[in-house]
Amino acid sequence: MQDLVARRRALLGPNVSTFYDEPVHIVRGEGVWLWDADGRKYLDCYNNVPHVGHCNPRVVEAICKQASTLNTHTRYLHEGILNYVERLTATFDDPLKTAILTCTGSEANDIALRMAEAMTGKRGIIATDATYHGNTTLVSHLSKSNVPEVGFGLDQYLRHVEAPDSLRISDPDGQHFAAKVQEAIDDLEQSGIGFAALIVCPLFLNEGFPTQKEGWLKPAAEAARRAGGLVICDEVQSGFGRCGTHFWAHQKQGVIPDIVTMGKPMGNGHPVAGLVTSAEIMARFRKSFRYFNTFGGNPVSCAAAMAVLEELQEKQLQDHARKMGLLAYDRLMELAAKYPVIGDVRQSGMVFGAEFVLDHDSKEPAVSFTDRVVNKMRHRGFILSKLGRHKNTLKIRPPMPFAEEHLDLLITALDEVIGEAVKSI
Questions:
Q1: Domain 2-52+316-424's class?
Q2: Quick count: other Cβ atoms within 10 Å of Cβ 79?
Q3: DSSP string, 66-133
Q4: Is the pTM above the cut of 0.85?
Q5: Which class for 152: exposed (0-12), middle (13-18), buried (19 or more C-beta within 10 A)?
Q6: Which residues in the chain are classed under CATH 3.90.1150.10?
Q7: Any idea which fold 57-314 has?
Q8: Quick one: 325 exposed, middle or buried, by C-beta within 10 A (0-12, 13-18, 19+)?
Q9: Interval 284-318: pLDDT, tens
């Protein structure tokens, strides 16, 4: 392990992040399970990249079959990308019926911002102050915690609004958030930059996936539209049935965005991502920018992505996510009744977790406590993480085949680990 860490530092550079106090050396995966180099088995309660399960046989077969036949770029005609985009856009409401395929969600979000500029002639972008949307030079500025000391002056085009927080901010109908968005719109317009787009994850997952009723985002979306801007929903984490009640989380929010971006889960680990938008926005973008992506939408990527859609739909994994989310919420609420350190329990389908606090009245975040829980769970063979503005909310976001027997194992271990950890508060 020490040799691997040293080689990483020497070959990949300093500060390349790893999970946990003691990194995990993973060598194999299957379904919802992972194995390390010593043969130890871990329950994967975190990774959304293998959306339909690690090494899913349908996806593996599709990749191998297409890779043994042809793989090239989209300047040659090929049915694969067309068949996939037809099937993908069938899951969206009108007018979201055209797509661009990329390799990463970062690229997809970068294109979405350029589309907003093409449509509005303006450059001002609004995001929350606790979000993450990717790693390109422009997109990295959307993440307030990632804004670099140098960055071509792009920060002037960004405005960050207070992220929703259902534990600390009373905003049952989304009006408070909409007001903050409107303030940012006004500031961008008064500055002379102008307002181009609001970009959010419709589950606000990095913000700690606060509890929200259906339609919560509508007031903010309406404010953006009134100002002539676009609404961009980043569904990299929240899409493809994960929220359970809908195939896309923006549908749960009662909003039809102008652009929807997607990534990680799309190819179950194969690097395929993209965005969906209207024919009008696509045409304007194509006229305003010259864009080509050598690997985006290649035949192997499209075969992998098609296999993911087929697996999701044929095995009814969206409804499975809905049922598991409800069950997980009940089990976590049982722990909350037992341990006061749990300040809030949240779920949206196959995303669930608990926020830890030191005091229910002050709601002071139990940050170091959360770190201990995450690391203790890793040593017990459970892969999960933390997120939110204070990094005190458990991030449980497993592959979609995660089932009741796996939840039983997780809750039993959490019960024991929290019980041990509270003794040191």
A1: alpha beta
A2: 9
A3: HHTT----TTS--HHHHHHHHHHHTTS-TT--EEEEESSHHHHHHHHHHHHHHHHS--EEEEETT---
A4: yes
A5: exposed
A6: 2-52+316-424
A7: Aspartate Aminotransferase; domain 2 (3.40.640)
A8: buried
A9: 999 999 999 999 999 999 999 999 999 999 999 99
